[in-house]
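Newbie here. eight chains, one complex. Structure please?
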Amino acid sequence: MIWTVYLSGEIHTDWREQIAAGAEAAGLPVEFTSANTYHESSDAAGDFLGKPENNFWRDHQSSKVNAIRTKTLLEQCDLAVIRFGDKYKQWNAAFDAGYCAAMGTPYITLHDEDIVHPLKEVDAAAMAWAQTPEQVVELLKYVTA
Amino acid sequence: MIWTVYLSGEIHTDWREQIAAGAEAAGLPVEFTSANTYHESSDAAGDFLGKPENNFWRDHQSSKVNAIRTKTLLEQCDLAVIRFGDKYKQWNAAFDAGYCAAMGTPYITLHDEDIVHPLKEVDAAAMAWAQTPEQVVELLKYVTA
Amino acid sequence: MIWTVYLSGEIHTDWREQIAAGAEAAGLPVEFTSANTYHESSDAAGDFLGKPENNFWRDHQSSKVNAIRTKTLLEQCDLAVIRFGDKYKQWNAAFDAGYCAAMGTPYITLHDEDIVHPLKEVDAAAMAWAQTPEQVVELLKYVTA
Amino acid sequence: MIWTVYLSGEIHTDWREQIAAGAEAAGLPVEFTSANTYHESSDAAGDFLGKPENNFWRDHQSSKVNAIRTKTLLEQCDLAVIRFGDKYKQWNAAFDAGYCAAMGTPYITLHDEDIVHPLKEVDAAAMAWAQTPEQVVELLKYVTA
Amino acid sequence: MIWTVYLSGEIHTDWREQIAAGAEAAGLPVEFTSANTYHESSDAAGDFLGKPENNFWRDHQSSKVNAIRTKTLLEQCDLAVIRFGDKYKQWNAAFDAGYCAAMGTPYITLHDEDIVHPLKEVDAAAMAWAQTPEQVVELLKYVTA
Amino acid sequence: MIWTVYLSGEIHTDWREQIAAGAEAAGLPVEFTSANTYHESSDAAGDFLGKPENNFWRDHQSSKVNAIRTKTLLEQCDLAVIRFGDKYKQWNAAFDAGYCAAMGTPYITLHDEDIVHPLKEVDAAAMAWAQTPEQVVELLKYVTA
Amino acid sequence: MIWTVYLSGEIHTDWREQIAAGAEAAGLPVEFTSANTYHESSDAAGDFLGKPENNFWRDHQSSKVNAIRTKTLLEQCDLAVIRFGDKYKQWNAAFDAGYCAAMGTPYITLHDEDIVHPLKEVDAAAMAWAQTPEQVVELLKYVTA
Amino acid sequence: MIWTVYLSGEIHTDWREQIAAGAEAAGLPVEFTSANTYHESSDAAGDFLGKPENNFWRDHQSSKVNAIRTKTLLEQCDLAVIRFGDKYKQWNAAFDAGYCAAMGTPYITLHDEDIVHPLKEVDAAAMAWAQTPEQVVELLKYVTA
């Protein structure tokens, strides 16, 4: 079995690359999926359909185009890793966690200790809490052994 | 039909009371449900089972006790109102929105204009975005007419 | 058992009233639900949230507010009656039929013989095709006997 | 991942071919499925079982044979494109859109601006509205990147 | 809890009445539902929509009108009793049993010992096999105690 | 797409072989699945677990062993062909039809005209009624084209 | 909202009565359901259908009659309490826990500390672990407040 | 079709190896999946995330890491074999059986005759009861033939 792992959340650090490199080094039977992680092109995802002048509708249109991709990939994954960094609101990451919880798809969180309290509901429905990409790789090794 | 409306999110302002008062004044066939909105008792929800010394596990235990209530009420509602205020992380509100989206339960968001951009994924899956409790009451009037 | 019957489609004739009157005269254990059938207020359903200048987004916003109501009522009905008249496109009626088909909710169609051919896919997934409101009442009598 | 895209609706123009050509030119990981798009053979799909004299039942029989194919392909697609042209009723296209909406399958619409208003309910449940086959190809590029 | 019990199958003997009488005598919290059990009116259920000359389509039309009722009641029951008598094919009874099995709705069978072998697949998915209406009443007493 | 077609029902004639031969001759992208069609070995399917003396329990044990196979294959098929011959009760065939109906899996029936009336409920939920294996092959050609 | 709470497991102590008394004393909006808790009548639940001589089949028959009740009540509860005492195997209690987990129904466990290790998988999918009936009552107070 | 068979339960004897060897010798189209069967590494599955001092939380953390694997493999199998040996509580095996029952996944049990009575509920929802690994292999031969 090849495990499909969706990587959700923070796009400003290289945690995705670290996990992918670790998994490759270990030869794990894992493939990773993800939203578009380029901020600007993600914000402009719907502009080719005609860019609305109003910011709310521009965001709305682009987010729905992005959601075609993210919803499909999230629904097809075997496991999701939800990453919360120290910047920005990252509500989309928490949204993905809730989506997984409702579907019964297992997910783990990846975040520092100082945000344990505000993330308590998200962690309570998770299968594990990791603090480093190395731990995520360790977990993937164990799960796919 | 009595509509059951789950009120999720911010607990530091009186938006729930404003909506409830507006609905009552208008005689709407609506009943409201909600998580425990008292911060301290919510954090201590699981302490009667033995309070873990470690903060992570204390939060974990309490959050799961709270989830018995919130998950049940959220799954039974006809409509959810997800409120984002100007303080705190409010990841649980975004989590609830994702949960609704996956279940196919309609929800609306209630937040100011200045957080339209970070909430774009949450708004994209919502049925409407309101900026004031009065608009929510207006919406409930229309929907339940 | 009280049967909940959703009446979908044409809003320019009094077919809903005829069915309701017939059901009441016969004392049937039936309650009817429906979308907002007033054209203007339906088109303006979302305007209280701020009326978008762009027609597409105004329609979009209003349609989603209407959908909170229609989706909920459609999902809760035991039977739907889908009416196609001789005017307008009535794509929302066909949309409701497809929605019912996917959910496994039984529906019947109500339309004249001259549109049998273009409605063949919609009729093929229906439980019956009626040509008059009287026939619908007859069917409700039989089904709820 | 190979994306399966169902192309529903209008059969009198070459929009399917344009999209397929654009996707092939771009080397996209996409495969297209569709109903039988030949009008006459579609109408006669059930005749080999014995052709009913009555038009309603002939249409009924053929539509159900067609539905074996369309229902299966629609349920297996990752994304549907629903096309509305300027002729005919095209209720089957709206029916497919409703079917997707109820299943939670993402779909986009493809139509001119002059039918935005009658299609508002169908568009409201869609992930995007495109006006040209080129925009659809653009969207497929983005989503499958 | 009031248990809803669907009584499916044979219509030429009074087994339904015997069970209902036994349940009433024992004051059980049970309500019974059933298809239309009058053979002639059942066969003519769709004739008010226009009686097709062809027998197959007449049966087809009537069966679908009947199915609005039976499918709804079958899907809403807590328990089904499937009765096979010594006459006729009774394929609709076996059909109902398969429908229950797929939904996960518990059902029991009621039939004589001499048809144990041809009913083995139907009995294998049942929760119990009874040979008399008295045994069915006994079972209802136990289950609803 | 390879279509998986489950062949259910009568085991005393060669209808399965005729359909398979026709499909192979036409090079159709179809694979067929089926229950164990050997009467004696099917009846003895559970005997290796210890043969119960009582006939009911022997049938019960064997039928459940058979059901591991049939339930799995039935749930995985894209289309089922349900065959009713002129002998025996064939309640398992009607059971399979009901199972398909509840799952939303399309099925067609294959039977002579003289049993149209007792099969009316089973036919009403079917997508087509064929009278010969040749017609079934014809249908598979059309559906998989 | 009245919460329905299913009480599963140990039948040799009065833990059910303690919880019910505590809930009643506190006036909680809770109703309790349960399997038949009388050992002998439970073992004999199917004997009225004819008592099989073979022990396996007698148990089989009785367990399925019991399952009509337990499966229905378990599927209808809002919360289950799964009790493990210090005697017997209690595999049915663990079975009920697994059933709840698969359905997404929240459950809590009630057991002493010395069996924490063998129950770790069952506890891992639970929303809480209580050690006394008083704690269960406390939890019900909080959840239904 | 390759059948995926999940082997759940007892980890102190070589029943898994016996079944696998028998299946391989017979060239069966079967692949086996399983939880981590090494007791110590299973108990320590979550320690790399930080080993909680409290035994309950250590078990909790490890069990959830294990559950990522077991839940996924259990949900993907076509058939489960649930083994109960003569030692230990083996509540996780009964939990897996309940999980399968709720999902509708067929499972068989493998255990000696002396524990028929305490396993009656688990056996009642099973498709077969085997007493030896050889019988399981026999069953796999029959089912996959």
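Moderator note: Chains E and B do not touch (no CB pair under 8 Å). The CA atoms of residues 15 and 133 of chain E lie 6 Å apart. Thread marked as resolved.
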